[in-house]
Write a structure and sequence with these properties.
The complex is a heterodimer of chains A (222) and B (223).
Chain A (H helix, E strand, L loop, with lengths): L2 H5 L2 H40 L4 H16 L2 H11 L9 H27 L2 H9 L4 H30 L4 H4 L4 H12 L3 H27 L5
Helix pairs in contact in A: 2-5, 2-7, 2-9, 2-10, 3-5, 4-5, 5-7, 6-7, 7-10, 9-10
Chain B lengths: L1 H7 L2 H40 L4 H16 L2 H11 L9 H27 L2 H9 L4 H16 L1 H14 L11 H12 L3 H31 L1
The chains are: A mainly alpha (222), B mainly alpha (223).
């Protein structure tokens, strides 16, 4: 039994490399879209909640709780298999994008909200005293501080959610795992699965090092 | 409105699917118990190694942690379940899930324990050693209790993440909650069993998520 030939067969690597490279791009661009829209939506929701209106806060808290408590895979299956019976058909990649964006937004909203409530009242008062409106204080005084203190958490959450693009394989998105899975079935070799694991290492190992750097750089000792 | 109720909240179908889903929930519960215990033990050991002063011990621990945080647990699981038979090792789905989760969860728990240990002031170690405690005693009675208390919210939220993560076991046909619900959906051509599974996850995880939010707020105000 040749371990290398089973898990890293050169011929099979050569055959499936082009497909795998395409799959890597799919994984990357869905991740980038999810991170951008998830961060934006999460920040926006935390901002809305800062207005302290009950009818605004309730739905936001409910949304954030549900998205943090439910497994993303369950949400994806419900949207992918359930919506067509209402006449709404979403494409596989859009379901993946939508669910991951909502989940990321929920976590980001909670991260920002925890900071918004913990900043000293003096920040708000000083902002108001210089003649800034509530909106201006929120955007120009409070948010920059919230972003800075939470960079490590935001980076970690973004990386975690990016790795969840692997769930797309369950509903047929042509990302790394699904391409590797069908290549494995087709070739009868474990090599494509190893290629998938290596592809993730190439993408995310540097990201892990980056997140360590960021954590040290923005670490506050208290 | 009727179509929505019929497609997602169909009581008749939920009643039919209930026995299957309860069985699945029981498997999920057992799975959670095993993988959480494995993950915490592995993570604690790894976290201690990663906190070592000796670089020859620390660096391999860091590489292990970063490698298994970089690879999504889903591909790890598929690699173990579908890959090992190629070298003559056939593992049942439950065992494959446990191995994949041990590798992945240990890495995450290790990071949490490590940051907890780092958060305990150095004076604590020095004081404990000065009173004559051995290095092992210092670690066990002085450092770790404080470290764990400092990262309790992170430990709890990682447990929630793991419970949610067990749903990927459905991919290797382990008959846990999501697998059972998806079976029921395929048989009945109706998504209500999936919604029912979602509700079962909510019953357990919603309270935990609330507690985590409380924790975060409490901590950030005091610090």
């Amino acid at each position: 039994m040749d371990f290398g030939n089973v898990f890293l067969n050169p011929e099979i690597i050569a055959t499936y490399m082009p497909q795998m490279v395409r799959a890597v791009w799919v994984t990357i661009w869905i991740s980038v879209l999810v991170v951008i829209s998830g961060l934006a939506l999460g920040a926006f929701l935390a901002g809305l909640r800062a207005y302290q209106k009950r009818w605004l806060a309730w739905p936001i808290v409910l949304f954030a709780d549900l998205m943090r408590a439910l497994p993303p895979l369950v949400l994806m299956l419900i949207l992918f298999f359930g919506l067509p019976s209402l006449g709404v058909i979403l494409s596989d990649w859009f379901v993946l994008y939508l669910v991951l964006t909502l989940v990321l937004a929920a976590f980001v909203e909670e991260i920002f909200w925890a900071t918004l409530t913990s900043l000293p009242r003096g920040q708000w008062e000083a902002g108001a005293a210089t003649g800034l409106s509530f909106n201006q204080v929120l955007v120009n005084v409070i948010f920059p501080q919230a972003v800075r203190t939470n960079i490590p958490q935001l980076v970690n959450r973004s990386l975690t959610i990016s790795k969840m693009t692997a769930y797309g394989s369950v509903i047929g998105v042509k990302e790394i795992v699904s391409v590797a899975g069908s290549a494995q079935a087709f070739s009868g070799s474990a090599t494509p699965l190893t290629m998938a694991a290596i592809a993730y290492l190439i993408i995310f190992f540097p990201a892990m090092l980056l997140s360590r750097y960021v954590e040290n750089r923005f670490h506050y000792d208290h | 409105m009727d179509t929505i109720i019929n497609a997602f909240f169909n009581i008749d179908i939920m009643r039919q699917a209930a026995p299957l889903l309860l069985k699945g929930a029981w498997v999920t519960l057992q799975l959670c118990a095993v993988v959480i215990i494995l993950g915490i033990s592995g993570g604690l050991a790894l976290g201690l190694l990663a906190s070592s002063k000796n670089a020859a011990v620390r660096l391999p621990a860091f590489v292990f942690i970063d490698v298994f945080r970089a690879i999504p647990p889903l591909i790890l699981l598929i690699l173990i379940y579908a890959g090992l038979p190629f070298i003559g090792i056939r593992v049942p789905p439950f065992v494959a899930v446990c191995i994949a989760f041990l590798l992945n969860n240990s890495a995450y728990f290790a990071e949490i324990f490590r940051s907890g240990i780092k958060s305990v002031a150095r004076g604590q170690t020095e004081a404990a050693r000065a009173t004559g405690l051995s290095p092992a005693q210092t670690q066990a009675y002085v450092i770790l209790p404080q470290a764990v208390r400092n990262v309790l919210p992170d430990l709890l939220s990682n447990v929630v993440e793991i419970v949610k993560l067990t749903s990927i076991a459905s991919v290797v046909s382990l008959t846990e909650l999501l697998y059972s619900a998806n079976m029921a959906r395929a048989v009945t051509y109706n998504s209500s069993p999936l919604v029912m599974a979602a509700l079962m996850y909510l019953v357990v995880l919603w309270p935990l998520v609330r507690v985590i939010s409380r924790f975060q707020r409490g901590l950030s105000i005091s610090s």
